[in-house]
C-alpha cells in the first residue's frame, strides 16, 4: 500500500462573524468522494464547554481559560459503566465523555454523511482513511481533538488503525517535489538543561499565564543521559522487540548537538545531510512561533527556525518540549474577568507548517521525560518499519496509552501537523525496494560485465573508494536517494546515471553508458582530453575519467574488469 494512494478527508472549522456567540462553520476541504464537499453551521454547545472546562481542571490545571470555557462544572453521570458493567472512574468517564462530545459536534449532519462515504471508499479499496483537521480559530487549537471517539468502547480517532489522524492548515505554500529518502538522517539537538527566570522569559511566560513561581526555574534536564537514550532509540529503529534485525529495516544515522549556538545549528543543517530534526529541551509559547532555549542567553523562535528547515529540506521536525503545539495567548481587554484569547498561527508546530515543513510533531502540554522517551522509542521503531509519519504517530500513541493508561493525558499530548500536500512518506516504502533482479542480470539478455566507479586521489592517482555496478545501474548526485553521493555545491541532486545496455539481439557485447541530467554538466576525459557533456548520453570506456559539475570537482574513474 502506498501512502500517497490513501484516501483523505480534510475538514476545516472557522468561527463565524455573527451575533450568536461561538458560532462555527465546518466544511470539507478535501474528500475522496465528489459528493463529499459539504458545509455545516453550528454553535458550540454549553454541555461541551462544561466538559472541556472539567477536563482542563483535572488534566491540565495550569492551562488558561478562553472563550470556549464555561467557567462551570461538567455534570457527568456518577454511575457510568463500561460495556462489561464495571463502574468507570471519574477520570476515565471524563476522558471518554470529551471524546464522544467532540465527535458528535464535529461529525453531524452532512459532515457525518461525508465521513461515512469516505470510509466506504477506503474500505472498498482495502485502505485506511486519512483524516486531517484544519482548525482556523485559535481557541480550538488547545482542545485535544485526538480524543474524539464515536461512542464508548470504540478507539479514539488518533488510536485507530483504520483512521490516520493529523492536524493541518491550508494556508501554506506548495511543497517542492521531494524524493523519498533511503535512510533516516537525524540531527538531534539538545537545548539548555536549566532555564533561569529573567525579565524577558517572565514576559513570555506571563503571556501564557504561568506565574512567577512556576517559571522561576524550568526543570533541569540531564542532557547527556537524554542524548544517549534518544540516540539509542533511533539507532535501534531497525530492531524488533525481541532484539532481532528487521530484514527490511531502514538504516539510521544520528548526529548530536548539545547546547549549540544559533550559528552552529544553522551550519550543521546547511550540510543538507538531514531529513529529520529532533529537538529536546525547554521551550515556551510566544507570538513568533514559540521560543526554544538552545543555551544560556541564546534562543531561537519558530519563525527564524522555519527559514532554515525549509531551505535545508527537513521533512519531519519533532519537538520534545512542553507546549510546542500550543499557541501563545493574550488577555482580552473587554473581559470583566481574566479571559484569554489564543494568538492565531503562533504555535511552533503551526508556524513551521505555514512556512513549508512537511510534518511537525509537538506537544500540547507539559510532558515528562519518561513519557517522551516511551513515545520516541515507539515512534522510531515505527519509522524504521517504513510506516508513514501519521501511522507511526498512531502506533507510538498506542504505546503511551498502554503504559500510562487511557484515563491519563499522556497519550493525548503528541500533536501531529502535516502539510496538506504531504503524503506522509519519509523513506521509500517496502514495495519500491523489493524488486528482485532476474537470474540473467539486469536486462535478461546475458551477463553484465563487472564494472566499478571509483574515486581517485589526485595526489597519488590511486583509487581510494569504489562503488561496484553489480546491478548494471548507478545513480550519481548530491541527494540522499543516489547510489554515489557527491556533496559538492556544483553537483545536482540527480546528476547522472551510469547503466549497462545490451543489443536488441542479445548477441553483441553489452556496453556501459553515462546519461547526464544535471544543471552544469559532466566532464569526461578521453583521448581528446576533457570534454563537457550536458543532457547527453555517451558510451563509457574502461579507464575513462569523470568529474561531475565542475573541473574543480573530485575525479572518478570508470573501470571494467578484464574478461581474459
3D architecture notes:
This protein has 564 residues and is α/β, with parallel strands linked by helices. Helix content is 23%, strand content 25%. The protein has 11 helices and 27 strands. It has helices at residues 46-59, 90-106, 110-124, 199-207, 212-215, 223-235, 262-269, 302-311, 348-355, 369-384, 389-404, and strands spanning 8-15, 23-30, 39-43, 129-135, 163-167, 184-190, 252-258, 276-280, 283-284, 291-295, 298-301, 316-320, 329-331, 340-342, 359-363, 414-418, 451-457, 462-468, 473-477, 484-485, 496-501, 511-516, 522-526, 529-533, 537-539, 545-548, 556-560. A 6-stranded mixed sheet has the order 7-6-8-12-15-16, with helices on both faces. The protein has a 6-stranded antiparallel sheet with strand order 18-17-27-26-23-24, with no helix packed on it. The chain has a 5-stranded mixed sheet with strand order 3-2-1-4-5. Helix 1 (46-59) packs antiparallel against helix 2, helix 6 (223-235) runs parallel beside helix 10 and helix 8 (302-311) runs parallel beside helix 9. It is elongated.
Amino acid at each position: 500500500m502506498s501512502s500517497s494512494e490513501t484516501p483523505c478527508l480534510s475538514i476545516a472549522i472557522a468561527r463565524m462573524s455573527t451575533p450568536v456567540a461561538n458560532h462555527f462553520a465546518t466544511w470539507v476541504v478535501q474528500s475522496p468522494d465528489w459528493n463529499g464537499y459539504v458545509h455545516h453551521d453550528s454553535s458550540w454547545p454549553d454541555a461541551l464547554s462544561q466538559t472541556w472546562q472539567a477536563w482542563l481542571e483535572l488534566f491540565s490545571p495550569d492551562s488558561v481559560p478562553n472563550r470556549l470555557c464555561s467557567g462551570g462544572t461538567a455534570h457527568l453521570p456518577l454511575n457510568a459503566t463500561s460495556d462489561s458493567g464495571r463502574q468507570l472512574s471519574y477520570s476515565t468517564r471524563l476522558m471518554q465523555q470529551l471524546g464522544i462530545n467532540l465527535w458528535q459536534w464535529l461529525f453531524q449532519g452532512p459532515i457525518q454523511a461525508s465521513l461515512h462515504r469516505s470510509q466506504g471508499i477506503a474500505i472498498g479499496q482495502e485502505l485506511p482513511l486519512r483524516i486531517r483537521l484544519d482548525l482556523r480559530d485559535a481557541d480550538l487549537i488547545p482542545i485535544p481533538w485526538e480524543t474524539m471517539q464515536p461512542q464508548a468502547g470504540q478507539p479514539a480517532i488518533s488510536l485507530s488503525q483504520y483512521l490516520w489522524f493529523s492536524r493541518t492548515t491550508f494556508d501554506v505554500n506548495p511543497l517542492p517535489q521531494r524524493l523519498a529518502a533511503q535512510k533516516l538522517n537525524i540531527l538531534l539537538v539538545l537545548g539548555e538543561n536549566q532555564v533561569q527566570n529573567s525579565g524577558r522569559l517572565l514576559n513570555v511566560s506571563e503571556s501564557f499565564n504561568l506565574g512567577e513561581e512556576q517559571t522561576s526555574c524550568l526543570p533541569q534536564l540531564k542532557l547527556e543521559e537524554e542524548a544517549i537514550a534518544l540516540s539509542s532509540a533511533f539507532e535501534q529503529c531497525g530492531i524488533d522487540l525481541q532484539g532481532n534485525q528487521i530484514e527490511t529495516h531502514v538504516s539510521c544515522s544520528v548526529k548530536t548537538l548539545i547546547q549549540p549556538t544559533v550559528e552552529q545549528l544553522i551550519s550543521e543543517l546547511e550540510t543538507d545531510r538531514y531529513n529529520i530534526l529532533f529537538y529536546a529541551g525547554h521551550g515556551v509559547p510566544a507570538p513568533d512561533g514559540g521560543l526554544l532555549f538552545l543555551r544560556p542567553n541564546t534562543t531561537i523562535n519558530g519563525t527564524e527556525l522555519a527559514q532554515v528547515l525549509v531551505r535545508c529540506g527537513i521533512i519531519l521536525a519533532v519537538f520534545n518540549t512542553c507546549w510546542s503545539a500550543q499557541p501563545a495567548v493574550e488577555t482580552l481587554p473587554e473581559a470583566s474577568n481574566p479571559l484569554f484569547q489564543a494568538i492565531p498561527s503562533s504555535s511552533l508546530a503551526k508556524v513551521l507548517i505555514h512556512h513549508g515543513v512537511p510534518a511537525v510533531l509537538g506537544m500540547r502540554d507539559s510532558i515528562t521525560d519518561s513519557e517522551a522517551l516511551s513515545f520516541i522509542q515507539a515512534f522510531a521503531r515505527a519509522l524504521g518499519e517504513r510506516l508513514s509519519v501519521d501511522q507511526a504517530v498512531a502506533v507510538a500513541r498506542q504505546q503511551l496509552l498502554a503504559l500510562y493508561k487511557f484515563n491519563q493525558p499522556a497519550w493525548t499530548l503528541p500533536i501531529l501537523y502535516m502539510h496538506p500536500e504531504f503524503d506522509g512518506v519519509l523513506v521509500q516504502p517496502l514495495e519500491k525496494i523489493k524488486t528482485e533482479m532476474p537470474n540473467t542480470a539486469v536486462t535478461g539478455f546475458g551477463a553484465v560485465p563487472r564494472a566499478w566507479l571509483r574515486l581517485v586521489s589526485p595526489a597519488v592517482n590511486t583509487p581510494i573508494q569504489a562503488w561496484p555496478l553489480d546491478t548494471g545501474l548507478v545513480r550519481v548526485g548530491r541527494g540522499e536517494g543516489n547510489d554515489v553521493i557527491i556533496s559538492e555545491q556544483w553537483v545536482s541532486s540527480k546528476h547522472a546515471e551510469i547503466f549497462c545496455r545490451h543489443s536488441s539481439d542479445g548477441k553483441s557485447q553489452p556496453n556501459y553508458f553515462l546519461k547526464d541530467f544535471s544543471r552544469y554538466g559532466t566532464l569526461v576525459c578521453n583521448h581528446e582530453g576533457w570534454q563537457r557533456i550536458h543532457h547527453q548520453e555517451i558510451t563509457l570506456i574502461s579507464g575513462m575519467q569523470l568529474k561531475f559539475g565542475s573541473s574543480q570537482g573530485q575525479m572518478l574513474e570508470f573501470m571494467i574488469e578484464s574478461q581474459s
